[in-house]
């Protein structure tokens, strides 16, 4: 399940970086800038890549899973950095408005609906990816038993 | 509407990314299940 969840996370982070660039171009006039939140999100993307690289190149499946788990636990440190980047450092991203009551009620409702929808999408993709992974493991075992 | 092209592109990227991934998963699962079924039948064919 960790593998599946990381794969969905990688897809989502890739989407965030690409769509973020599409938003940044007309608003900031640049496709990319090395400001705190964007940089922290790119670091997160690299952490996901490192997870899969370690998992693939460790040789033995269980050893790869153990090493990748360490990457995941250490990489988790980046999540609060991404979330708090606009508060801790001054950058091009606007500051937080949700908790300071600066968001209009209609926008807050839209945000909550989006969070709910994307959470459901994550669960759907996780369930499917985990099922495919279990089938892959079963196929590998059956091939091993036959040879 | 200003910058509508960027807005369209952003929605298109997200839809293609997530639904493309889901479609790939479903396809892969179908192929793997077919192979598992053939592996289940293989010992019986001896």
Write the layout of secondary structure elements.
The complex is a heterodimer of chains A (147) and B (46).
Chain A: H1 2-28, H2 36-57, H3 61-75, H4 78-88, H5 105-146
Chain B: H1 4-41
Explain how this protein is built.
The complex is a heterodimer of chains A (147) and B (46). With 147 residues, chain A is mainly alpha-helical. Chain A has two domains: 96 residues; 51 residues. In chain A, 80% of the residues lie in helices and 0% in strands. Chain A is built from five helices and no strands. In chain A, α1 packs antiparallel against α5 and α2 runs antiparallel to α4. Chain B has 46 residues and is mainly alpha-helical. Chain B has one domain. Chain B contains one helix and no strands. The radius of gyration of chain B is 20 Å and the shape is rod-shaped. The mean pLDDT of chain B is 84. Classes of the chains: A mainly alpha (147), B mainly alpha (46). At the A-B interface, α1 and α5 of A face α1 of B.
Instruction: Report the portion of residues of chain B in β strands.
Output: under 5%
Approximate helicity band of chain A: over 70%
Strand segment tally of chain B = 0
Number of domains of chain A: 2
Number of domains in the coordinates of chain B?
A: 1
Main pleated sheet of chain B: none
Number of helices of chain B: 1
Number of strands of chain A: 0
- N-to-C order of helices and strands of chain B: H
Ranges of chain B where pLDDT stays below 50 over 5 or more residues in a row are none
User: What is the SS-derived class of chain A?
Assistant: mainly alpha
Mean pLDDT of chain B: 84
Class by SSE composition of chain B: mainly alpha
Rough outline of chain A: elongated
Instruction: Calculate the terminal CA-CA distance of chain A, rounded to whole Å.
Output: 28 Å
Element order of chain A: H for helix, E for strand: HHHHH
The proportion of residues in beta strands of chain A is under 5%
Rg of chain B is: 20 Å
Biggest interface and residues each: A-B, 23 and 23 residues
The largest sheet of chain A is: none
The best one-word shape of chain B is: rod-shaped
